[in-house]
């Protein structure tokens, strides 16, 4: 008999980050019907609406998505703990859930905690996916430490105290869970990559055409970053590295976010507006094509829960450069599967880029090692099986 799971997630498709990709990849696999025609899991989700153009109900993949709120981003997020709880209570009366699954310790997790208090027999699984430091919550109280400790911190800790089981996508987040008082052992279930999608080979003429569209000359080197354009991903440091790097280096920025305008302005200020291509949000299925025409992947993160984009770049077969922060250290082994650059150092980024360009044998060795690691540890099929075990435990 299938297990009914109610997911709590502050954001979901079409708002896509690493956590949202992970939930879809896992639920797609765990909802597939077995040979007897029965699926092992049925998934419903409660999330914030955040855009008036989005319907209050939609089926995304194998998940029934219930959006609450008025379609007003900030307001919907902060009403989610209450609206989400009442919606969950109503749905539970109809569906009698076996389990709840909270994605990240955020606004949705407060709703999950309220639900747990009301229905203690329903097991609660928490998955830590966040990439920001916990201190980022202070922005909601204008950086005031006292207000943070009174108004934010107690609510943030609720989910850690109420979770029956906790998983984390990295050692870094596992330590955070322990520090915040989880009751039992924390299991690491990393995010992964769609190996088939990201390692696929494209017809040469298709890649040539894309290079032509982007103006890639025979001597040009493309550095790519696939990132939300937010402070923690430090795309500004990557752009500043062009001050040091020669004119044949160009940057592809795949993704959007609140820092887009600021980053465009920066590129113009340093005279690199014709060397930085802001591609915006690219269809997920098309991302591998942009990786394939690129020479190096760089994300000089200030903080990182894990970093799906690194794993995807490794699967696509290009060398990666990152910073030794957060969960990145789980999969980048310096000189083996990638290179580390210093945090907040455009010059260090440029230095590491030049090492890869000038030492092709090192670059090739790292690509082979990284791809092998991804296939063995980060295939979504393997990850989904681990998550299945976490969700199946009574």
- What name is given to the CATH topology of the largest domain? Rossmann fold
Q: Major beta sheet, specifics?
A: 8 strands, mixed
Provide the structure class: alpha/beta
- Supply the number of helical segments: 14
Helix coverage percent:
40-55%
What is the N-to-C order of secondary-structure elements (H for helix, E for strand)?
Answer: EHEEEHEHEHEHEHHEHEHEHEHEEHHH
Mean residue pLDDT:
93
Shape: globular
What count of structural domains?
2
Count of strand segments: 14
In whole angstroms, the N-to-C terminal distance is: 15 Å
Name given to the CATH architecture of the largest domain: 3-Layer(aba) Sandwich
Strand order of the largest sheet: 3-4-2-1-5-6-7-8
Instruction: Supply the CATH class of the largest domain.
Output: Alpha Beta
């Amino acid at each position: 008999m299938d297990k009914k799971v109610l997911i709590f997630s502050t954001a979901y498709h079409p708002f896509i980050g690493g956590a949202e990709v992970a939930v879809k990849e896992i639920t797609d696999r765990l909802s597939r019907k077995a040979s007897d025609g029965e699926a092992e899991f049925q998934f419903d989700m409660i999330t914030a609406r955040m855009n008036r153009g989005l319907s209050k109900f939609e089926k995304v993949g194998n998940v029934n998505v219930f959006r609450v709120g008025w379609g007003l981003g900030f307001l919907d997020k902060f009403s989610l703990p209450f609206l989400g709880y009442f919606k969950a209570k109503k749905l539970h009366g109809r569906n009698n859930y076996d389990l709840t699954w909270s994605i990240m310790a955020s606004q949705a997790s407060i709703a999950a905690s309220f639900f747990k208090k009301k229905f203690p027999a329903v097991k609660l699984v928490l998955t830590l996916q966040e990439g920001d430091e916990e201190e980022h919550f202070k922005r909601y109280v204008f950086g005031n430490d006292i207000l943070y400790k009174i108004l934010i911190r107690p609510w943030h800790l609720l989910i850690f105290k109420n979770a029956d089981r906790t998983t984390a996508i990295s050692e870094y987040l596992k330590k955070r869970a322990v520090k915040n008082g989880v009751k039992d052992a924390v299991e690491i279930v990393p995010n992964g990559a769609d190996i088939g999608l990201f390692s696929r080979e494209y017809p040469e003429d298709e890649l040539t055409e894309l290079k032509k569209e982007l103006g890639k000359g025979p001597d040009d080197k493309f550095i790519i970053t696939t990132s939300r354009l937010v402070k923690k991903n430090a795309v500004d440091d990557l752009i500043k590295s062009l001050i040091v790097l020669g004119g044949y280096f160009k940057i592809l920025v795949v993704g959007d976010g609140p820092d887009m305008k600021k980053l465009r302005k920066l590129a113009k200020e340093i005279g690199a507006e014709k060397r930085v291509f802001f591609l915006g949000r690219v269809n997920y299925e098309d991302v591998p094509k942009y990786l394939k025409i690129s020479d190096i992947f760089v994300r000089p993160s200030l903080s990182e829960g894990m970093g799906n984009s690194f794993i995807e770049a490794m699967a696509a077969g290009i060398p990666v450069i990152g910073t030794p922060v957060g969960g990145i250290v789980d999969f980048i082994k310096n000189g083996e599967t990638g290179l580390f650059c210093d945090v907040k150092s455009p010059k260090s980024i440029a230095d590491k880029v030049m090492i890869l360009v000038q030492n092709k044998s090192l670059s090739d060795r790292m690509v082979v090692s990284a791809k092998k690691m991804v296939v063995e540890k980060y295939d979504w099929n393997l990850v989904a099986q681990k998550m299945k075990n976490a969700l199946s435990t009574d």
